[in-house]
């Protein structure tokens, strides 16, 4: 009995329970990121179909959005993705491709003033913009959650518990094209 009490006291002081709490927080934050990506994927077919009605000859752009969405939704998102850097990188890549395709779609929209005036398109565009903002917030929360977890994994004496129980540093979001996004975009209203 005394040995069991001593073990419980030792484990509670080594950070084991904090690992459980922080690991679950990372999983919950990741779940929200995935939820927001799914919301975006669900909105895209409606947006594409609305644009198709106005811009039927912009077939290549519409097809690239459809392909990117298919790739993003076919990627199997499991909790193991968090512990597999290669799978995590692949997930980020397909989501980045979808973001790029959506950007090209918005350029097509600029060519069609009647489309921008259409109420159903405005509603879809507003939903998509809101979704992109939600994705940004979900990513930020995930990054903070991973940061807290990783600091706990790497801090003494809880790093000893991490090694003992196999808690490894988790990957955070990274930007593939960091150099490209560090350059300010050129805005030109001239024709």
UniProtKB/TrEMBL annotation:
Topological type in the membrane: Single-pass membrane protein
Entry keywords, A to Z: Membrane, Transmembrane, Transmembrane helix
Gene Ontology CC: membrane
Keyword Transmembrane among record annotations: yes
Cellular localisation: Membrane
Signal peptide: none
Family assignment from sequence similarity: Belongs to the LemA family.
Protein name: LemA family protein
Species name: Massilia polaris
């Amino acid at each position: 009995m005394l040995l069991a009490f001593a073990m419980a006291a030792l484990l509670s002081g080594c950070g084991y329970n904090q690992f459980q709490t922080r690991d679950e927080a990372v999983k919950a934050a990741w779940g929200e990121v995935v939820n927001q990506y799914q919301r975006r994927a669900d909105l895209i077919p409606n947006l594409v179909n609305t644009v198709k009605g106005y811009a039927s000859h912009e077939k290549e752009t519409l097809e690239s959005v459809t392909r990117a969405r298919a790739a993003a939704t076919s990627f199997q998102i499991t909790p193991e993705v968090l512990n597999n850097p290669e799978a995590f990188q692949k997930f980020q890549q397909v989501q980045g491709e979808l973001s790029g395709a959506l950007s090209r779609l918005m350029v097509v929209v600029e060519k069609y003033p009647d489309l921008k005036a259409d109420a159903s398109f405005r509603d879809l565009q507003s939903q998509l913009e809101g979704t992109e903002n939600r994705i940004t917030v979900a990513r930020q929360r995930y990054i903070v959650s991973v940061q807290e977890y990783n600091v706990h994994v790497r801090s003494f004496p809880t790093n000893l518990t991490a090694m003992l129980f196999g808690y490894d540093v988790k990957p955070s979001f990274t930007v593939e094209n960091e150099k490209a996004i560090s350059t300010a975009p050129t805005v030109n209203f001239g024709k």
